[in-house]
Structures are given as C-alpha cells and as structure tokens.
Specification:
The complex is a heterotrimer of chains A (about 220), B (about 240) and C (about 200).
Chain A lengths: L1 H14 L3 H19 L3 H22 L2 H9 L2 H7 L4 H30 L6 H26 L7 H27 L5 H30 L1
Chain B lengths: L8 H32 L14 H28 L2 H33 L7 H22 L3 H29 L19 H41 L4
Helix pairs in contact in B: 1-6, 2-3, 2-5, 2-6, 3-4, 3-5, 3-6, 4-5
Chain C lengths: L2 E10 L2 E11 L4 E5 L6 H8 L7 E5 L5 E4 L11 H11 L6 H6 L15 H13 L5 E5 L7 H16 L3 E5 L10 E4 L11 H4 L3
Parallel strand pairs in C: 3-7, 3-8, 5-6, 6-7
Antiparallel strand pairs in C: 1-2, 1-4
Classes of the chains: A mainly alpha (about 220), B mainly alpha (about 240), C alpha/beta (about 200).
Chain lengths: ~220, ~240, ~200
C-alpha cells in the first residue's frame, strides 16, 4: 500500500499537472471573480469565504479523472486487482494521494488567495481549518465518481454531473464554517457536521468505490 | 406461488398487459374528477385567492417526485440482492418519470410562489432540496445512458442510487441548516391543527391517487419497453447477429 | 495439480463465446491456448485470473496464486525501469528485482524512463514484472507481441526456468515459443453455439 502511495506521489510530481495544475486553476478562479463582480472591497470580503470554497471544489473536481483513468488506460488497474491488495485499500490510497497532491496545496494556498479577495482577518483560520477538514471528503467522494466512470470514454463531463450533487453537503457545511468564522460567529456546529461528513465518507465510501471498480474491471 | 414469479420478464409483461388498461382508466378517472372538483367546485382561499388551486398539481407531483426515488431505491436493492432483471429495468424506467414529476413540482411551485411570495424562485430549503433531487435524477439517467453493457449499467446505477440516497438525505439536512425558508410546513401532516380543511383535502386526495396511478401506469409501460428492448437484443444474440 | 478449471463458460459483450472448457495445470507445466481471433482467449484468461466472473463453471487454486499479464503492461512512462519493477515487487511483498532485470536483458536500460523504451523493450519489462511477483501461476495473454526473435528466446528461457522451479504457465499465443514441453489446448471445439447470456435467457 505504501508503495502505491509513493508511486502515485512520484508520478504526480514528475508528470506535472499534479501539484501545479489544481493550484493554478484555483488561482485563476480567484482572480477572475473580482473581474466578474467588481473590485469593491466590501463586497469581495463578504463573498470571499464562499469563493475560496467554490474555487477549491472546482480545482478538486478538475483533477478527479486523473485518479483512476490513467491506471485504467495503461492496464495497471487490472494488475493491481490481481495483486494481494484489497480493492478498498487501493481506492483509499488513490484518494489519499489525490488529497496530498490537490487538496493539501489548496488548503495551504487559500490564505494567500484570501488576500486577493480581502478576506476578513478572523476568517483566515476558519477558511484553512474548514478546507483542511472538508477537502479529504471531496477527494474520497471524487474517487467514487472516478470509479463509477472509469470505463467510459470521455467520462469527464458525466463524472462532474455525478459528483457535484454529492459535493453539496460538504460545500454547505464547509462554506458555512468559513462564513461564520468571517462574521465572528460560533462555528462549532457546522464544523462538527463537516467533520462528521468527512469521517463518514472516509469510513464508508471506499467500500462503494471498490465495489464499483470491481464491476467496471470485469 | 410467490411474488418473485413476477420478476420473470415474460410473466411481468403478460401480467401488466392485463392490468395496464385498468390502471390507465382509473388514473384518468381520478385525475379528471380530482382536478375538475378541485378547480371548479372548491371555494377560493380567503388569503391566497384562486392561486391555491395549483395545490392539486403541485402537492401530488412533489409527493411522486420523492416516492419515485424511493421506489428506485427499493428496486436497486432488490437488483443488488436478488438480481431480478425486471427490478433493475423498473428502476431505470422510473427515473425519467420521477425527474418529470420533480420538474412539474418545481414549475408549479414557481407559478404559485410568484403571486404569493413575489418571486419565482427563492433559495428556500424545500425548493433547493428539490433542485438537488433533480440533479440526482439527471446523473442517474446519464449513467444509465453512458454504459453499454446492460448488467454493468444496472450494477453501477443501483450503487449510485444507494450512495445518492444517503447524500440526498444529507443534503436535505445541510440545506435546512443553511437557510430558513419561505415555504409553508407540511400541508398533509395528520397531527397538526393547521391542516387544510376538508373542502380542499378530499379533491386533493383524489388527485394524489390519480398521480400515483399515473406513475404506476407509466412505470409499467416503460418497464415493458425496456424488457422488450432487452428481449430484442437477446434474440439477436441467439441468432448470432449481434 | 495447482490449477483446475472445470466446465467454464464465458461471455463477452452479452454473448456467450466459450463453454465447457476444462483443463488442469500441474506444477512445472505449461499450457498454450490456441484458437482464431475472437474465440475468447483473452476473456478466458481474465476469468481464470479472477478479473471477470465466469458465467458458469469453476476455477480452483487460482486465489492469490496468479500473476497476470494482459495486452497492456501497466508501466508508468515517467518512472524508470527499476522504479517500475521495484513498485510491482513491493506490491507483492518482495524486494529482489535483479534476477528479473538479468533474465530479460534489461540491466543496461535500468535507469531509462519507461516512456523512452521501444515497444519490444516495454514488453520485456512487462514480462520481467512476472518474475518479481513471486506467484507460481503465470497467466499470459499474447506475451510475445512486439518481441524480436532474440527476446522471444529470452522469454522462453524465463518460462522454462519458472517451470523448473515448480511454477506453471497458462498462455494464449499464436506463435511458436520453442517450448516443446508445453501442452497445447485448441479452444475451437469449445466455441459456444450462438446464444445470449444465460442471464438474458429469461427474456426469451
């Protein structure tokens, strides 16, 4: 399992598009928003937590089809399926690698981009915390979507259609933590609910992803 | 003789062929009488005027939008556990009907909301939940269409239906948490004082029965079509032409 | 006897293609499957490897014993030859990759990126992967595609060594490998009569 994780991380670094692309996309979205809604600081600082969450979510979505599609194309998935690794373990590692290469950089970049959107000072810590708690859920749910559509040619658009509705609860609670943090309100209940979703999907969804992947491989 | 015998496709078609005319007739009777009764023979509401009458389409379609998904969930579970083809195909057949019901509920809701709330759309929890439900229907149908092998598609969509149901419930709570709404509370709860009065209630009941029957008729018909399409492919395969 | 296949029926794309296939594979034995294109060699091998459930019949002795090599090699273009091999070795819980490099004459290419290999060299690397799995049964689908005569000889030698060590091999191939001791099973007689899958029979 560790070998698989190391391989995936190594590939993400060498092949490019792993660390860099998601981050660049996040940056572009954040830069485009002020062009769209106008440069007023007051307006920007009000919508900043939500924009950061949406940007992170889209950047995550963009890189989902790399999770399994490449291994599917070059036959690695067939070989991994016959290896002594449980399929549940494989999809968990894949999601973890995706989080490390996409989710984690987004969490770290969010405060920097917050400056561009005049994010209120008290919100910084809550944006980072909510993203840190919520992005693992995005990766795990995304892996499920990737497993569903792995056998389909040009399945990227379909995968977005399947994954986005599943992202709704995570987005609502995550953005709510950030918004309440920005307004200086108590964040405890949405944060606990967000953590609940993250841990829940991490514990249960790999079984569904593995089942789906086995069906797709046969 | 068990219920599972009807899971045989041939038997299903034979039985539903007999039942369908009756279901159609009853559905038509209920719908026509319920709607005519509701539209022309009930008083206007003292606050809402005649717009209240949209309830005779809005509430039944909203009910069926949710019930159709529940039916798909049950059918998916039956497919996963017992692998009856009719079950998987019935789930597939129900999805577009459920999606249509969702659209009807959303559209009539907008028509009703405009005079009442002064807006076609508000990000009210109930409205938002229905919009999300519609997205789930879209994804489910798109996945069915995208996969060529019938059994693979049935397997994948039924797992999507299970996972989607969990997330739909999560979304419902999340949306409630996110925004307090304009939408009135449940109209039909049996324990509340402020239920609608019997004058509106009886025609509404007839309309709901009509929508349920209409849904059953449509799902039977569409399931028959799916079965026949599968049968055609199986026959071609037997002739060695596929 | 380490692998036993009984009365296997397989389907592809909703059509029955093979039925009633039975064979045994003992330790130290090689079995070559033959038959025209489309007879179902690949599907049969995938069923034996456990990637695809057979429509009927049983495969015994395959669980965690099989190293499968399909049409694609499962190589990562951005990893070097040794990194690719070492990855697969550690997935199967082993560490030694040297003998595999030597057996397939890859020692000089060891630090080359897999993406920079020729088709034949990639294939050799894909086959070298079998040696680092430590699994006794090799299930090979067209193993010699894009190999030149010298490489085919290397491959035959590797299979022979594997057999001598008590392993066994199940191969689908068209060309002569020079493995005189290998048994041959022609799949043509097992071709299924045109029919739909049994699952679809209910619709008729």
């Amino acid at each position: 399992m560790r070998a698989l994780l190391i391989r995936d991380l190594m590939l993400a670094i060498r092949a490019g598009g792993g660390f860099g692309l998601g981050l660049a996309f996040f940056l572009i979205v954040t830069v485009l928003v002020p062009f769209g809604v106008g440069p007023q600081t007051e307006l920007l600082s009000r919508i900043a937590p939500g924009i950061l969450w949406i940007g992170a979510l889209l950047a995550c979505l963009l890189s989902l089809d790399r999770i399994l599609a490449l291994d599917w194309e070059d036959g690695s998935l067939d070989l991994l399926a016959t290896a002594p690794l449980p399929m549940e373990g494989i999809v968990t590692i894949k999601a973890l690698a995706h989080w490390i290469t996409t989710g984690l950089p987004l969490v770290l970049a969010a405060p920097v981009l917050g400056v561009l959107l005049s994010l209120p000072i008290p919100a910084y810590q809550w944006v980072v915390i909510s993203l840190a708690v919520g992005t693992p859920a995005l990766s795990v749910i995304g892996t499920f979507g990737a497993a569903l559509t792995v056998g389909i040619k040009r399945g990227g658009l379909l995968m977005s259609l399947l994954v986005l509705p599943l992202y709704v609860p995570t987005l609502i609670f995550g953005a709510e933590v950030a918004r309440r943090g920005a307004e200086g309100l108590t964040v405890q209940s949405p944060l606990l609910l967000l953590a609940g979703i993250s841990f829940g999907v991490m514990a249960l969804l790999p079984f569904a992803s593995a089942a789906v992947l086995r069906i797709n491989l046969r | 003789m068990s219920l599972w015998e009807y899971a045989n496709p041939v038997k299903f078609i034979r039985t539903t062929d007999k039942v369908l005319p009756w279901v159609w007739t009853l559905a038509g009777l209920c719908l026509v009488s319920g709607l005519v009764w509701g539209f022309f023979f009930t008083p206007n509401d003292f606050r809402q005027g005649s717009t209240v009458k949209i309830i005779y389409i809005h509430v039944p379609s909203a009910l069926m939008a949710i019930n159709a998904w529940l039916m798909m969930l049950v059918a998916s579970l039956i497919w996963i556990v017992r692998r009856h083809h009719v079950s998987a195909l019935a789930a597939r057949a129900a999805a577009p009907v459920g999606a249509a019901m969702t659209v009807i509920a959303l559209a009539t809701g907008a028509f009703w909301g405009q005079p009442m709330w002064g807006t076609w759309w508000a990000w009210d929890p109930r409205l938002t939940s229905f919009l999300i439900l519609f997205l789930f229907y879209l994804g489910y149908m798109a996945l069915w269409e995208a996969i060529e092998d019938d059994d693979t598609a049935a397997d994948l969509t039924s797992i999507l239906c299970l996972v989607g149901s969990v997330f739909a419930i999560l979304s419902r709570y999340a949306v409630n948490f996110w925004n307090q709404g304009l939408h009135q509370g449940a109209t039909l709860s049996l324990d509340k004082e402020e239920n609608i009065s019997d004058v509106f209630w009886f025609p509404l009941l007839v309309c709901i029965a009509g929508f349920v029957l209409l849904f059953i008729a449509l799902v039977f018909l569409r399931t028959q079509t799916e079965i026949r399409a599968r049968r055609t492919r199986a026959l071609l395969a037997r002739e060695g032409q596929a | 006897m380490i692998l036993s296949v009984r009365d296997l029926a397989v389907t592809r794309g909703g059509l029955a293609i093979l039925e009633g296939v039975s064979f045994d594979l003992a330790a130290g034995e090689a079995l070559v499957l033959r038959g025209p294109n489309g007879i179902g060699k690949t599907t049969l091998l995938r069923s034996v490897a456990g990637l695809q459930p057979p429509e009927q019949g049983t495969v015994t002795g395959a669980e965690d014993q099989i190293a499968y090599a399909g049409h694609s090699d499962g190589l990562k273009a951005m990893l070097s030859v040794t990194e690719n091999l070492r990855f697969w070795a550690s997935v199967f819980g082993l560490t030694d990759i040297e003998s595999a490099l030597v057996a397939f004459d890859l020692t000089e290419l060891r630090s080359r990126m897999a993406g920079a290999l020729s088709a034949g060299q990639k294939r050799r690397l894909g086959l070298a992967r079998l040696m680092v799995t430590g699994r006794p049964i090799w299930v090979l689908d067209e193993p010699t595609v894009s190999l030149d005569a010298a490489s085919v000889a290397l491959f035959a030698e590797a299979v022979r060594t594997h057999l001598q060590q008590g392993g066994s091999a199940l191969m689908a191939t068209h060309i002569d490998l020079g493995l005189e001791e290998a048994r041959v099973l022609d799949l043509t007689p097992f071709k299924a009569a045109p029919r739909a899958r049994q699952m679809d029979e209910a619709f008729l």
